[in-house]
Write a structure and sequence with these properties.
2 copies of one chain form a homodimer. By secondary structure, chain A is an all-alpha fold. The first copy, chain A, is built from 10 helices and no strands. Chain A folds into 2 domains: 4-77, Arc Repressor Mutant, subunit A (Orthogonal Bundle), CATH 1.10.10; 87-203, Orthogonal Bundle (Tetracycline Repressor, domain 2), CATH 1.10.357.10. Chain A is elongated, with a radius of gyration of 19 Å. At the A-B interface, helix 7, helix 8, helix 9 and helix 10 of A face helix 7, helix 8, helix 9 and helix 10 of B.
């Protein structure tokens, strides 16, 4: 355990400046995600998460003040494979090229059974556990939507999209289609999803 | 109970030509939907459905051979308020007008808490209970997608959409956006959804 890494007081979700063992954090997040994907929010109690991670309940509570915060971060850890667009990229690379570049990794990530399972469970919680959806939305989805928004605003400046484009609705159409597609039959594989993503981006006006 | 209505052997989901009391059917469907929306597939056992509907378990099994079939129809009954486009309409009314006409009722239906709840539960089941999603998809979603497809094909013939439009992906983008929008915060009301739907249809190229 290294104490100096966390001495600035910005130590993770709770910000208490406690020394943290990243191995323990990872084990807790993994256990939380597994339980959530297997059985939803009900199945993922702090007690069960601690038991599966092989740590005490207090160890979990020291790191996350609520099950919702922990689950929001655990859910996010399942999305790590989704490619991200950096501000640097948006500045220097044309939108069509950025989109084309991201297609293979996005298709692979969407095709994973784990992604489908947690997307299904996450959407399933939005009505039954709005606090979880709110935490997930605020901490993890909104920052990414802002990044996509910057890219679409560049597309507007470049004349790729028209100036009256409703950017938020367009993001919903692209993201909504991807999530909906992997949750309805027949389940697509990665190759089918590459073609599908190309169609979606073309319909969105981002690919020629 | 009227027997003549069902004497043609096409008596409802099981097709056994049994006399049917529509009041009993409605009570069973209502009970199934309530239990499903409250607690998902697990909570909606045939036994509990029968108990809430005030009928015997056998009465339920006589009408639906499986919980999946019953739940698929129950889920569909919650969507009854969504407006449908008839073949007649598609033949005679321009697409932009059809879409514009459907906006108020669609916005009202999407804004209902009941719609959000069952959309969340239905998507939540797609991984955990694929048989339910498959039944729902085949019997209820596909026929509607075919109707939308006919409308979009007319839009292509009319030159409203380009001839190389990927119609299935476009349907996913519109439907996916609507479902995604009502499941993410902040929850929109009916007036906001009318504006939202207009944006979506405009981005899809169906409204000017």
């Amino acid at each position: 355990m290294t104490t100096d890494r966390w001495s600035d007081g910005a130590a993770g979700p709770r910000g208490r400046g406690r020394p943290r063992d990243p191995g323990v954090d990872a084990a807790i997040l993994k256990a939380a995600l597994e339980l959530f994907v297997e059985g939803g929010v009900e199945a993922a109690s702090m007690q069960r998460i601690a038991a599966r991670a092989g740590v005490g309940k207090l160890t979990v509570y020291r790191r996350w003040s609520s099950k919702e915060e922990l689950l929001a971060q655990a859910i996010e850890s399942a999305r790590e494979n989704l490619p991200e667009v950096t501000a640097e990229d948006v500045e220097h690379v044309p939108v069509a090229e950025l989109v084309e570049r991201a297609i293979p990794a996005t298709a692979d990530a969407l095709a994973e059974p784990g992604f489908r399972a947690f997307a299904a469970q996450t959407l399933g919680t939005s009505v039954t556990h709005p606090a979880l959806m709110a935490a997930y939305w605020e901490h993890y989805v909104l920052p990414r939507r802002r990044a996509i928004r910057v890219m679409l605003e560049r597309a507007i400046r470049d004349g790729v999209l028209s100036t009256d484009t409703d950017v938020e609705a367009l993001i919903d159409m692209m993201v909504g289609a991807m999530i909906y597609r992997v949750l309805h039959p027949p389940v697509p594989d990665s190759a089918e999803l590459r073609d599908y993503l190309r169609s979606v981006y073309r319909l969105a006006g981002l690919l020629p």
